[in-house]
Design a protein that fits this description.
It is a single chain. With about 525 residues, this protein is an alpha/beta fold. It has a domain at about 75-85 and about 170-495: Alpha-Beta Barrel (TIM Barrel). Helices cover about 40% and strands about 10% of the residues. The chain has 19 helices and 14 strands. It has helices at about 60-70, 85-95, 110-115, 130-135, 140-145, 155-170, 175-190, 210-220, 255-270, 290-300, 325-340, 355-365, 380-390, 395-400, 430-435, 455-465, 470-485, 490-505, 505-510, and strands at about 5, 50, 70-80, 100-105, 105-110, 120, 125-130, 190-200, 275-280, 305-315, 345-350, 370, 390-395, 440-445. The two termini are about 15 Å apart.
């Protein structure tokens, strides 16, 4: 196949084009142009597509255009895993010499002093130096390398990246709001008409003074910010965990949710897309679990950009009732309450843990969707149960490779997505293909696009060009995501209509052999 270069996707969006992805609700309107206060072309994964890569023979320019302009839905993407390295680097450069900065460790003389010297990683008790690692970066390239994870094939190596860059934004409500707005900008640039973005509000909270002192000792940190800018003034004010002050220093995770909600609402209005939120518990912080559930209930009807579900992220150790009851019991109890509150539940399971954790997530924790779930691909009995219960699997191809969720021998490279995509294995034997062939309800997602240096559009490219998925299979995955979204039926009808219009407009492309 001759080399065909498709221009940078993110650089072609100065004017939105008339495609079916555009949102036509009276709630907002599609803008006539995208404000370029900051260039839309981000530092992570520019959309340069060279079709002479080792794509499947069915991948061509027509397919590239189809995937690029197809209206999309994303149900599994982490906000903190989507934070643009260029944005963070610019912020660091501007604030290095600032006289006062509010950050994860309180008010500091400059941004570097807001970063912890080191943290203790809770999953292995090893010490990770943070401040010196960031200070050592003199260029954007060095900083991007520091906070991205490629080629490690380890979930915990990936999680280390978060321990490096999250302290930069932790507790900075203005910055979090802007990052949420920018997230909407990038989703719009990829034709993502509906997103459920997830994050741990506690992980993004400014550390209380005591926890700031202890962070390097035990890796903990749930503190709070001292701002009082709750957008949800009609929230129930009782004595539940959501309203308690953390160590007397502020209102905690609620401020983070409010700031992110403001940014998402601005993004919805500006770009004519729809975004809702999922709040994450963190596997190694059982003390946060109950409050996450209470917060989700409080923000359940806080539309637009409401909290539509809860999750448990950052590992699967909490499923181990026998060996780790201190992790299991608080999470299990919190998710019994979540079910009583009729909250939607999606849980990371079967990614790097036991396939039986998928069963636990569904049968004990009440999950209707599973983040990843690759380990069930060699367990026909588990797949049959999940097929019968119509459990949706949020599949993330690049993520599965980088975290080791997709197990295979060898680690050869072929640079299949321009950023070190691990090759030397057979993508057509990816567990997601077995899951699809078995008839499971599967959707495609990007997970942590900035950390993995990728995008949702790239995940579809890998699906077709590497995994051998047909257009029909791609559309089925898209329709699965629509059907499984934690949203009202009228919004699903709107999304299906947008897809139908797109397919009608591109019937010539669809009929190509």
């Amino acid at each position: 196949m001759p080399a065909i270069t498709v221009s940078n996707e993110t650089q072609t969006q100065s004017q939105p084009q008339t495609h079916a992805f555009q949102y036509t609700s009276t709630e907002s309107s599609t803008p006539t142009s995208i404000p370029l206060a900051r260039t839309l072309s981000t530092s992570y994964h520019p959309e340069r597509v060279h079709l002479n890569h080792k794509w499947d023979h069915g991948y061509n320019l027509s397919m590239e255009q189809f995937l690029r302009y197809m209206p999309k839905v994303e149900l599994h993407v982490h906000l903190d895993g989507s934070m643009d390295p260029l944005f963070l680097w610019d912020y660091l450069k501007k604030k290095r010499s600032s006289s006062s900065v509010s950050g994860s460790s309180g008010n500091c003389s400059n941004v570097m002093e807001c970063l912890p010297e080191e943290v203790t990683l809770p999953w292995n008790n090893q010490t990770l130096k943070v401040r010196s690692a960031v200070e050592a970066c003199t260029t954007l390239e060095e900083f991007t390398t520091l906070i991205t994870c490629r080629g490690e094939r380890s979930l915990f190596a990936m999680l280390e990246c978060f321990e490096i860059f999250v302290p930069i934004v932790r507790g900075n409500l203005v910055l979090l709001e802007q990052l949420a707005f920018d997230f909407c900008q990038r989703q719009f640039s990829q034709r993502v008409m509906y997103t459920e973005v997830r994050y741990s509000p506690h992980f993004l909270v400014k550390l209380a003074e005591k926890e700031c002192e202890d962070e390097g000792k035990d890796g903990s940190g749930d503190g709070s910010d001292d701002s009082d800018n709750d957008i949800n003034s009609n929230s129930n004010s009782d004595d539940r965990g959501t309203m308690k002050k953390h160590k007397g220093t502020g209102t905690g995770a609620r401020d983070v949710i409010d700031a992110i909600t403001r940014g998402l609402r601005r993004g919805e209005k500006e770009y004519g897309i729809k975004v809702n939120q999922i709040l994450c518990c963190i596997a190694w912080r059982p003390d946060w679990a109950r409050e996450v559930v209470e917060l989700a209930r409080d923000y359940k009807d806080n539309y637009p950009c409401a909290v539509v579900g809860v999750d448990i992220a950052a590992g699967e150790d909490h499923f181990d009732q026998e060996k780790l009851p201190h992790l299991y019991e608080p999470h299990y109890e919190a998710f019994q309450i979540a079910q009583e509150y009729d909250l939607n539940i999606t849980i990371h399971a079967g990614e790097v843990g036991d396939s039986q954790f998928v069963r636990k997530a569904v049968n004990e924790y009440g999950a209707r969707r599973i983040g990843h779930g690759y380990k069930i691909a060699c367990e026909p009995d588990v797949m049959e149960e999940m097929r019968r219960k119509n459990i949706h699997f949020e599949v993330c191809p690049t993520s599965s490779n980088e975290t080791g969720g997709w197990a295979y021998d060898g680690d050869g490279r072929d640079n299949s997505d321009n950023s070190g995509e691990c090759g030397g294995k057979e993508w057509k034997k990816h567990p997601a293909i077995d899951m699809i062939r078995y008839g499971l309800n599967v959707g495609i997602n990007s997970d942590d696009p900035a950390v993995f240096d990728t995008s949702l559009t790239w995940q579809y490219r890998i699906g077709v060009g590497k995994m051998g998925m047909s257009k029909d299979a791609i559309i089925t995955c898209l329709q699965n995501s629509i059907s499984s979204a934690f949203v009202e039926e009228d919004v699903k009808v709107w999304m299906r209509n947008r897809v139908d219009i797109f397919l009608e407009e591109h019937d010539e492309c669809m009929n190509e052999t």
